[in-house]
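Reference record:
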Amino acid sequence: MTGQITTINPATEQTLETYTLMTNDEARDAVRGCHDAFLDWRLKSTKDRAEIIRAIGKELSNSKEDFAQLMTREVGKLIGDSRDEIDLCVQICNFTADHGPDALADEERDIPGGTGVVHYAPLGVIYGIQPWNFPCYQVVRYAISNLMTGNGVLLKHAENCTGSGLFLRDLMERAGLPKNLFTVLLIDHDQSDLVIENDLVRGVTLTGSDTAGRTVAQKAAEQLKKSVLELGSNDAYIVLDDADIDLAVDTCVTARIYNNGQTCVNGKRFIVTAKNYDAFVEGYTQKMKAIKMGDPTDADIGLGPMARNDLRDKLAEQVAESIKKGARAVVGGETPDRKGAYYPATVLVDVKPGQPAYDDELFGPVASVIRAENDEDAMRIANDSRYGLGGGIFSRDEARARKLASEQFDTGMITLNGYNIALPNMPFGGVKNSGYGREHGGFGMKEFVNAKSIYMTDQEAK
């Protein structure tokens, strides 16, 4: 009997939809259909591809409210965050359409006795395995760049946002994308391995945990297929001695609570020098305590539910284990007695190595505030992590902060005196256990290409 996927509203615990998983034969046929669509798509000019990508952005704008409401129902995002997510995806489409043709244009180079040409050819079908925290953006981030390159795109979305994946597929086809070029696979993990093994699949990209990343990377490596991984993190935001404390407090609240605390580049560890520690903890605690939790469709609410009950329960266990090992919750720290996958804004202090709050990724609205002796100690603690995706530095000395970011902060993306999620014109990705490869900023368009060398001999020179 074929399995099923059931989506549930995490705010109300009501069932939304039920979907039937594909059989192995259906999944294999879907991969073949994507490949067949790719064979035609690869022959289109980059300008023609760009126009369809621009049309996808326009259709995203036209469908913004319907898509935003669906995402909020499926994963509990605040409705304002869902709308902002669609806006970001529109920007990605427009940036890619504007810059894709030039980024992928042939490059000519002088070679002995002739001219060398570097041609960026599409590889084929690229398989993406994506999480639930940004049901539109996580897909658009890899899919749009690969469509611009000329590749076909497969998606295995997280089960709890299956509807969002199908909504995006239909939206792209309304915008003029050839049918099957972007294909959603309703499959389980065992079937996912079969997709990676399929000879028609030429590359694999995953956004998820470092545990999932190891599994998928190993499977792709067995098949000698390139992979791009964007994995977890416990991003450090450093408050130096000369920081503007009011700015740091306000920004670090946003950095922790954005998207209900379920973002890979949320601020998670807040490392504050001894000079500022007491003032920071006092201000930060007050603001976190004041956050109103409730219905994510209510514009006045600052914190919605987590995406699933099991995710909330895991977070609660991490907090409890950290407290058992010496941390203290000065705000929150207890699961509320109410329907829905809710967990309150929480601030942990006395956070030390050996606690989940220090060592691991807490994927929810829990902040770990860590005391450092001085600026140098703060940077040491920031780098004392197996992860390295994002991070931030607060300092009034911008030149010094930039130097620290450039030369000492061992992470992929750093914001000075602010907080950023992602920008279409800047590379996105990390180091260490946070993965490898880059998306955005033009980099994603060249992750899955065949950079062909064409040697053109000058016949007149012979």
In short: Residues 58 and 90 are 7 Å apart (CA to CA).
